[in-house]
Each structure stands twice: as C-alpha cells, then as structure tokens.
Write a structure and sequence with these properties.
single chain, alpha/beta, 4-stranded antiparallel β-sheet, 9 helices, 10 strands, about 35% helix, globular, binds adenosine-5'-triphosphate, transport, P-loop_NTPase
C-alpha cells in the first residue's frame, strides 16, 4: 500500500545539517593588467570556520582577500558570499586592516559605533552595542578614551570591535597583528579565538606566520609564490577551547607546523621539458 509522502518523510532518520557555506570561489582568476595573479581558484568556507591564508609576500593573499571584501572584481569565475555574487563591499563582510584605520578625533565608543551611526540606529542602541563590543575585546573602561591614548594592541582591539559591531557574517583580516609586539600579538590571537567561539563568525585570516596560521586556523590554505593562487590545504585539530595558550606546545600544533614548514620549503616543481 502506498504511504503518504509526509509519513515517509517523518520516518527518515534525522541527519545532521551540513555546514552552511558562507564563501565560495568558483574558478576565480585575477589579472593586474596582463599579469595573472590568481588562476582558476576554487574553494569554499563553511560558517564558523577560521581559515588561515598563509604564504610568502607576493603570492596573492591580499588580492584574494580583496575579492572577498568586494574591493576587487575577479577577471574570470565567480566569488559568492552567502550564496550571492560579490559585487562590492557589504555589511556581511567586515575587514580588519593591519593599520588600525581609526578616526583619531572620535572616542573608542564612537569609533566602535561608527557603522551603527551610518545605518541610522538610535543613539542608545549605538552606545549599548559599542559598550558590549568594547568589553568583548577587553577595552571595557576605555570607551571615552581617544586613539592617541591607547597602545598599538588596544587600537587594534578597537578596530576589531568596530568591525564586530557591524555584525558581519565574515571577518576578513589582513595581517592585523603585524605591527604589535609578540606578547600583544599572542594575546590578540587568543582574543580572536574567544570572540570567534562566542559569536560563531567565520574568519578568513591572512598571515606570513606559520605559528599564527596553526594557532588560529581550523584549516590552513598554503599559497606559494608563482603558483597563481593554487594552494595546499592543512586541517588543524587542536583541543577546545582553542584559545588555550598551551595549544602552542600541543603535539598536533608541532606536527602541523612541521608539515607546513616542509611544504613551504619544497623547491618549486620543475616545468616538464619537451
Ligand atoms: N594594484 C596592483 N597592480 C598591479 N599589481 C599588483 C597590485 N596589487 C598587487 N599586485 C601584485 O600582485 C601580486 C600579488 O600581490 P598581493 O598583495 O595579493 O600578495 P600578498 O601575498 O598579499 O603579498 P604581501 O604578503 O606582501 O602582502 C604581487 O606580485 C603584487 O606586486
């Protein structure tokens, strides 16, 4: 006897929902004038992933990030964010730059609330969100300070809070900690992982540092010079919570670091000779 479709559907075992795809590159290519930088690049990033883009200077990391940010249009192929073709910058993608890019004449609170003010959100909402974000990045108590009164690390926290306040689904970070000292850099890396765990945002993180890529990334895409964006991929599985400083000494950390290091040092493949 035929059963109604609804009954059959109810009897299906429940499967875990597949992770939602936030970013997709489909055969993306990029030229500057006639010079190719990326060729036929395809990959996707799921919600909640922290993907580290690692590679030497000039391999195309920033160009890739700029396509996701909507600052650059691919020469060929298509780049999608949340299922829509990326046609320009948008509030679903927040960019944290290496330079802090703060407004010097505004307080920390006003800097953080900037996107909300532009969106015409009420004053009290701006203040509440700014105060919450300031606390989230460890700037509680400094809401009324000006950028010149902050250290480099605090300014970068403020830049981070300003991006977070806009509620992006993807955070794009281009060497955000390159200008701060090692101790501050490690503290900020741990902060990023705590923020990621509490907000669930997706992160694409550009770095030159193998250690930073392994500590932050749930996945590393290793791009090498003159390979037009082609990458090797390294999953990273470290104990939770990911922000544990001891993770920097964990056997998995050391093993992935060694694998990535060896891959980076491999001589380029020789062109086949006729
Ligand atoms: N606006 C541009 N016009 C022409 N060439 C460019 C432009 N921007 C980047 N390039 C070139 O494209 C290549 C990739 O640059 P990109 O900045 O993406 O690399 P990167 O891996 O981010 O380097 P870095 O780590 O030094 O920032 C480099 O050779 C660079 O000189």
């Amino acid at each position: 006897m035929d059963r109604p479709v609804s009954t059959l559907l109810q009897r299906q075992p429940k499967l875990a929902a597949p992770p939602r795809e936030v970013l997709r590159f489909d055969r993306v290519g990029l030229h500057y004038d006639d010079r190719p930088v990326l060729r036929d690049l395809s990959f996707s990033v799921s919600a909640g992933e922290t993907v580290a883009l690692l590679g030497p200077s000039g391999c195309g990391k920033t160009s890739l990030l700029n396509i996701v940010a909507g600052f650059l249009q691919p020469t060929s192929g298509v780049a999608l964010c949340n299922g829509r073709e990326i046609a320009g910058p948008g509030p679903d993608r927040g960019v944290v730059f290496q330079s802090y890019a703060l407004f010097d004449w505004m307080t920390v609170e006003d800097n953080i609330a900037f996107s909300l003010r532009c969106a015409g959100r009420p004053r009290d909402v701006q203040r509440d969100v700014a105060q919450r974000m300031a606390r989230l990045v460890g700037l509680g108590g400094f809401e009324k300070s000006y950028p010149y009164q902050l250290s480099g690390g605090m300014r970068q926290r403020c830049g981070l809070a300003r991006v977070l306040a806009a509620g992006p689904s993807v955070m794009l970070m281009d060497e955000p900690f390159a200008a701060v000292d090692v101790q501050t850099r490690e503290a900020l890396q741990e902060e990023i992982l705590r923020i990621q765990a509490s907000t669930g945002c997706t992160i694409l993180f550009v770095t030159h540092s193998i250690d930073e890529a392994v500590f932050l990334g749930s996945r590393i895409l290793l791009m090498l010079k003159d390979r037009l964006g082609a990458f090797d991929e390294f999953p990273v599985t470290l104990p939770l919570p990911r922000d544990l400083p001891e993770n920097r000494l964990h056997p998995e950390f050391l093993a992935v670091r060694e694998r990535v290091y060896r891959a980076m040092r491999q001589p380029p493949a020789q062109e086949a000779r006729p």
